[in-house]
Design a protein that fits this description.
With 301 residues, the chain is mainly alpha-helical. 76% of the residues lie in helices and 0% in strands.
């Protein structure tokens, strides 16, 4: 039953993609970004703040790292996704989210000096090809004339931001319990989101958007991370990450059922190729070996 932990986490995050899409017409992106993490902060405070206060000296030494993580994971990732939801479908958001594991590996090659593998190279090429097919709606030539839309660029930037968040989390290995680290990141996230919140045109809450805020603030921001952490503890990070590949499938089913989004052939072709590339990067771990040229073949100066 250990598989249920990452499976339920991915399901909640898939539903959250639908919530992000619905929120585009119900609440200002800056408002839901702020309210989401404020709700999470208020909910966690009674349980986590006492331990955070006891570790305040340690946190003072790490504050700038926690600030950067809060900026990447709590501010940029979700804020960009909320803005992107105005112009891209929930299906597209789900497919882009599924690329996060591959983007994480690619960034790790630079930041963590991760050795490239055959799977990473082939997976990157396949995922890029699938993404081009998806964004161009099956007509790659139109990208040469029209380019990428603002929503597509925002969603790609959001996924890249979260991938970098994961890489830095691993590199820094912050010596704090997971929930304390997350709590301080949320504090910084709320602080960073405050100026945008007060500059938003409409920050009102009503019967239509309060359920969206509550879902984003509690199931998506607290329950899903808890389930994911439990899955990683029980199954290991490599095995748990494979469940992220179900994100576009869950999102597609929910988007078609509740938002009545239409599935087209370019969704199946582009999304399928991109997803296959991600799986290939995860599973094909044959290291790339470059044959050293014999001395006789070395170019002469």
């Amino acid at each position: 039953m250990n598989f249920m932990f990452p499976l339920l986490a991915v399901l909640i995050w898939s539903v959250n993609a639908i919530v992000s899409k619905i929120s585009a017409g119900a609440i200002d992106p800056a408002a839901i970004s702020f309210y989401r993490w404020l709700v999470a902060l208020i909910t966690l405070t009674p349980f986590v703040l006492p331990a955070v206060w006891r570790n305040r000296q340690q946190i003072k030494k790490l504050w700038w790292k926690l600030l950067v993580l809060g900026l990447l994971g709590m501010v940029l990732y979700q804020s960009l996704a909320y803005y992107a939801a105005y112009s891209v479908s929930a299906l597209f958001m789900g497919i882009l989210a599924s690329l996060i594991p591959l983007l994480t590996v690619l960034i790790s090659m630079v930041v963590l000096r991760l050795a490239p593998t055959l799977g990473i190279v082939l997976g990157a090429v396949l995922s890029l090809s699938g993404l081009i097919w998806l964004v161009s709606q099956g007509n790659p030539q139109q990208l040469l004339t029209h380019g990428l839309g603002k929503g597509e660029l925002m969603m790609f930037a959001a996924s890249t931001s979260y991938a970098l968040y994961g890489v830095l989390t691993k590199r820094w290995a912050i010596p704090l319990p997971n929930w304390q680290s997350l709590y301080v990141q949320i504090v910084f996230g709320v602080i960073l989101l405050t100026p945008g919140f007060f500059l938003a045109q409409d920050i009102s809450l009503n019967a239509h958007n309060i359920p969206l805020v509550l879902f984003a603030g509690i199931p998506a921001s607290i329950i899903a991370p808890f389930l994911w952490i439990q899955g990683v503890i029980r199954m290991g990070a490599n095995t748990a990450t494979i469940f992220m590949n179900l994100t576009p499938i869950f999102t597609a089913v929910i988007a078609v059922a509740f938002l009545h989004e239409a599935l087209h052939s370019y969704h199946f072709i582009g999304g399928g190729i991109a997803l296959f590339g991600v799986i290939l990067a995860q599973r094909l771990r044959t290291p790339l070996r470059f044959r050293k040229r014999p001395q006789s073949e070395q170019p002469t100066p």
